[in-house]
Amino acid sequence: MIAPEARMTPEGEVRRDREGNPTWVTGLSVRQAEGRRTDVIHVVTSGEPRGITEGAEVRVTNLWANDWSVDGRSGTSYRADALTSVTAPAAAPGGSGTASAAGARGKSGGDS
């Protein structure tokens, strides 16, 4: 949905993880398993996801969610070990030729 971009501090510096690696954020469109609802989640990775362009289908490795609350605000942040580009399979006769989108299904780890 949204191509990877470096995560920045309010002061304009690149945010880094505990090991000192730059962190990147990528906006992903996910469809919930129980219906037609879709959401955009922003997934943080350590290091730049390579080969991902806006609108590309991606594979998410070890996605996890963390609920947070600070100064009366709250939300859920998402991290993944990796985001990799998925190549669409060849179209089958009469088929659409697109693979299903990767998505988050609650607070679980593993490949999505």
CATH architecture: Beta Barrel
Query: Percent of residues in beta strands?
Result: 35-45%
Please work out how many helical segments DSSP would assign: 0
SSE order:
EEEEEEE
Spell out the blueprint of helices and strands.
Blueprint: E1 2-6, E2 23-31, E3 38-46, E4 58-61, E5 64-70, E6 73-79, E7 82-85
Parallel strand pairs: 3-6
Antiparallel strand pairs: 1-2, 2-3, 4-7, 5-6
Question: Would you kindly provide a written description of the structure presented here, covering whatever features stand out?
Answer:
This protein has strands spanning 2-6, 23-31, 38-46, 58-61, 64-70, 73-79, 82-85. It has 112 residues and is mostly beta strands. It has one domain (2-85): OB fold (Dihydrolipoamide Acetyltransferase, E2P), CATH 2.40.50. A 5-stranded mixed sheet has the order 1-2-3-6-5, with no helix packed on it. A two-stranded antiparallel sheet has the order 4-7. Strand 2 (23-31) and strand 3 form a beta hairpin. The protein is globular. Residues 89-112 have low confidence and may be disordered.
What does this entry show, briefly?
The chain is an all-beta fold. It is built from no helices and seven strands.
For this entry, give a set of tags.
two-stranded antiparallel ribbon, 40% strand, mainly beta, 112 residues, OB fold (Dihydrolipoamide Acetyltransferase, E2P)
